[in-house]
C-alpha cells in the first residue's frame, strides 16, 4: 500500500528543468520591468494632470507614423508566434523565415523611431524644450519612448542570437522552449508599446 501511495505522489511531481527555470526567470524579469514602465507612465499622468500648459499630444506628435509603428509591432508578434510554432513542429525553414521577419519588423520600428525623433528635434521639440507648452512634455516623451526603444533593441539582439544559433536546428523540436522564452519578451515589448502609444500619443 505504501509503495502504491508513493508512486501516486510521484506522478504529481513536476521536475524543475532548465527550460522551466528559464521561463520562470523571464516572467520574474518581465514583472519587474512592467513595474518600471508602470511607474514611468504613472509619473507622466501625474505631471500632465498637474500642468496648466500641457499640449494635446496628437497636435504635436501626430499619430499616422506612430500608428503604423504600432501596427508593425503587432505584425511582428504574429510572426513571432509563427516562428515558435514552426520551431515546435521542427520546421527549420519556417522558424528561420518567421523569426527573421520578426527581427526585420523590430529593425524597421527602430529606424522609424530614429526618423521620428530626428523630425521632432529639428522641429524644436528638444529634451527640455517644447515650443508648444510645458517642457516636461518633451522630457517625458523622450524618456518613455527611449526606454521602450532600448527594450526593442535588446529584443532584436536577443532574437538575432536565437536566429543565428538556430540555423542548424538547435532550437527546433524539443529545444523550442528557448524560442518560447524569447517570445515572452518580444510579446511584452509589443504590449508595452500599445500602452505607450495610447498614453503618450492618443490621450
Looking at the structure, the CATH topology is Four Helix Bundle (Hemerythrin (Met), subunit A)
Distance between the amino and carboxyl termini? 66 Å
Total of DSSP H or I helical runs spanning 4+ residues? 7
**Oligomeric state of this protein:** single chain
SSE ordering: HHHHHHH
Query: Count of DSSP E strands?
Result: 0
Major β-sheet profile: none
Query: Which architecture per CATH?
Result: Up-down Bundle
Q: At the first level of CATH, what is the class?
A: Mainly Alpha
**Strand proportion:** under 5%
- Radius of gyration, CA atoms, in whole angstroms: 21 Å
Structural class of the helix and strand makeup?
A: mainly alpha
Share of helix, binned: over 70%
Rounded mean pLDDT is 88
Query: CATH-wise, what's the superfamily?
Result: Cytochrome c oxidase, subunit III, four-helix bundle
Would you identify the regions where 5 or more consecutive residues have pLDDT less than 50?
Answer: 1-14
Backbone shape: elongated
| Whole-number tally of structural domains | 1
Task: Give a description of the structure.
The chain is an all-alpha fold and about 200 residues long. It has a single domain, classed as Four Helix Bundle (Hemerythrin (Met), subunit A) (Up-down Bundle). It is about 80% helix and about 0% strand. It contains seven helices and no strands. It has helices at about 1-10, 20-50, 55-60, 65-90, 90-120, 135-165, 175-200. Helix 2 packs antiparallel against helix 6 (about 135-165), helix 2 (about 20-50) packs parallel to helix 7 (about 175-200) and helix 5 (about 90-120) runs antiparallel to helix 6. The longest helix is centred in the first third of the chain and has 33 residues, at about 20-50. It is elongated, with a radius of gyration of 21 Å. The N and C termini lie far apart (about 65 Å).
